[in-house]
Design a protein that fits this description.
Blueprint (H helix, E strand, L loop, with lengths): L1 H31 L4 H13 L1 H12 L3 H26 L2 E2 L3 H20 L4 E2 L1 H24 L4 H9 L9 H33 L3 H13 L1 H12 L3 H26 L2 E2 L2 H23 L7 E2 L1 H23 L2
Antiparallel strand pairs: 1-4, 2-3
Amino acid sequence: MILALAAIVLGLVLLVWSADKFVESSVSVANYFGISQLVIGMVIVGFGTSAPELFVSAISSMQGSSGIALGNVIGSSIANIGLILGTSAIFAPIAFKSSILKKELPFLLAISVLSFLLLRDLTFSRIDALIFLLIFALFMGWTFFETKKHQRDVLAKQVKEEYPSNKKKINLKKEILILLFGLVVLILSSRILVWGAVTIAEFFGVSDLIIGLTIVAIGTSLPELASSIVAVRKKQDDLAVGNIIGSNIFNLLMVTGIAGMISPLTTEQGLFSRDLPVMFAFTLSLFVFGYGFKKRPGRINRLEGTILLLGFIAYTIYLVMGSTSV
């Protein structure tokens, strides 16, 4: 029991640290090869902050822990909006100005609906996974098109401020070695975390889905929490929101898709009747806030941020209390 708790703590610490190194080195290498700053911000950083979810879900799928694989994705999507954007908005109200993000919001909402449809039979087959991966490939193509079309977008300006092009020569071999080292630590820490999570679930007699939705999901969302709070404090609101929207799209499409291709995933009724509706509710809230209404500009004020955060806390307490009463 103590060893399993230590494995979870160690796994999470190494996971967050290695994801940070992975992102830093990826950005440096991308800058070296002259990749667009907007592409770096929307794609490379988005992938890097979703790397913990990717490796944890992939390894969980390999080991037959479908609950952790799916719970991690759904729980992280909920945490990204409720915990991270909610907390960030309490620090300072978040404004939505980027036209790119306003196009991504309905896309994210549509993916949430599609998740409902594909998981209604409580299974996520390889066919379902292939559908998600194909949609993800189309999304990537659209993203590259949009980055060329909207180089003067608000998000593009904020990305250039946060990830300026490094004209100085970097030690390419060193950066690639750091990148590979970060990748190896990501894999190892994911295995440690998954082992600890499964052991804890078995010890307390709760489903691995609950562990995936809570401990694992919150832990793998920590990179997004840190980067979003920093972005908001720097008045880079669209970068903070873009980080969350991009992460949720990556999680739902790529992370679930890869996990499902490794091994078909099965889950319990609670995911369909409880967790997916909660994820959809948070995503819908983000959509409404992002577009605004009655000529109100898209934004999340402190009150709305508090509501999101309290909603996330209430949901988490409900999960924990429900699992311990079984």
